Amino acid sequence: MESFGGEQGIYENVDILDPEPDTYKPTELPEREDELSRIHSALRPITLGGSPRNILVYGPTGQGKTVGVNLKTEQLLQWAAGEDDITLTVLRVSCKGAGKSWNVLADLVKKVREVRYNKTVEKPRGPTKVELFEMLSKDLQAIGGMVIIVLDEIDGIQEDSYVLYELPRASIEKVSIGVIGITNDYQFHENLDADIRSSLGSREVVFSPYDANQLRDILARRAAHALRDTYFEDGIKDSQHLQSEVLSGDVIPLCAALAGQDTGDARQAIHLLSTACDLALDDGREAVEEVHVRNAREEIQEETIGKGIRGETTQRKIALLTVLEADLAGETPEGTTQLYRRYKRLTKLVGTDTYQQGTFREKLNDLVHGNILEGDRHGRGRGRGMTNLYSLAVDPTLVIDKVGEDARLSEITEQLE
């Protein structure tokens, strides 16, 4: 049995390769200067004696949205600390899984009371959402000054929009409120009522996916702080100037390329590099090599994508099997109509409902959003419209293994093996 200790190996600071923003908080985002500048402009009125603008920040997971907002609000807090006549408070709440305005308001009341009384307090229980908003208003008035409320994953508020309506319109004596909403749902703004949309999204900032070059530089900065004998030549902090005795030259480019072709997700790229480093450490190697990256990708797919496939509904699994079947026959990418023929045959074989083609296409698109399938659109020729094409985004063996765990579908996967 292995014992702990003496395992540092290639690491200098292992936490820096943790992809979760709560573990390691970057102090710079050079790839997001334009986006940070737009956030800066929306917050600048505070420094001019005015009120902050409301902002909606969009972008897929792992694009630096939350980190960027935190960097600019922390910078603003540092400025305010040096001003005698400015009181600035930043309240950050995650709305993930909140569902209702009540939950968000209860979290905000807890946060503001911890600022007001400078101690940990319990989340209120029992009051209605209207009463919670009144409590929040009174506590904010007691603090006074400028207040920025950051609602991360704001699309988690699904069942009612009371808090989104009331916060931007709150009129509290001696208090100015600015709301920053962060979401990976590009349709979030459009799905809001017009009166909420007009006030909540006065400024919008979009964080587009990173490309492979940007991901290389992000990984290089992480590696320089996380790994021993890894540094920037001439002090230039980009991947071209990274020198390392514990990383082979193709590791960071490969991690960046794999993440870039999938989603452009920086967390995914960092997770891949971190897992590759762990595998090298497990092997007792003194350097991380390409094989560790490729093995790490397989391990991560098994861990995350495999779990996702296992948890899918029966209908989505059958939709996935249609693409698997086409892939094994060498016929992918394949169009919706051809896949639907396979689907009708498989549903009859399983003895489950056969949905209409439009609903079947929705199941395929759900799998695309989950990065299990790849989707593309191609023209069928002049005046003949577009066709949707689908192919696997994961290893076919992984699909066979995980879908095969479903007793209703194991007969099909056994035939495909």
TrEMBL record:
Cross-referenced Pfam families: AAA_22 (PF13401), Cdc6_lid (PF22703), WHD_Cdc6 (PF09079)
Bias kind Basic and acidic residues: ranges: 22-31
Source organism superkingdom: Archaea
Gene3D superfamilies linked: 1.10.8.60, P-loop containing nucleotide triphosphate hydrolases (3.40.50.300), Winged helix-like DNA-binding domain superfamily/Winged helix DNA-binding domain (1.10.10.10)
Keyword line: ATP-binding, DNA replication, Nucleotide-binding, Plasmid
Residues holding ATP: Y210, R222
Protein's GO biological process: DNA replication
InterPro entries reported in the protein's UniProt record: AAA_22 (IPR049945), Cdc6_C (IPR015163), Cdc6_lid (IPR055237), ORC1/CDC6 (IPR050311), Orc1/Cdc6_arc (IPR014277), P-loop_NTPase (IPR027417), WH-like_DNA-bd_sf (IPR036388), WH_DNA-bd_sf (IPR036390)
Spans annotated as Disordered: 1-31
SUPFAM superfamilies: P-loop containing nucleoside triphosphate hydrolases, Winged helix' DNA-binding domain
Annotated Cdc6 C-terminal domain residues: 320-403
Gene Ontology MF annotations: ATP binding; ATP hydrolysis activity
Task performed by this protein: Involved in regulation of DNA replication.
Assigned protein family: Belongs to the CDC6/cdc18 family.
Name of the protein described by the UniProt record: ORC1-type DNA replication protein
Native species: Halocatena salina
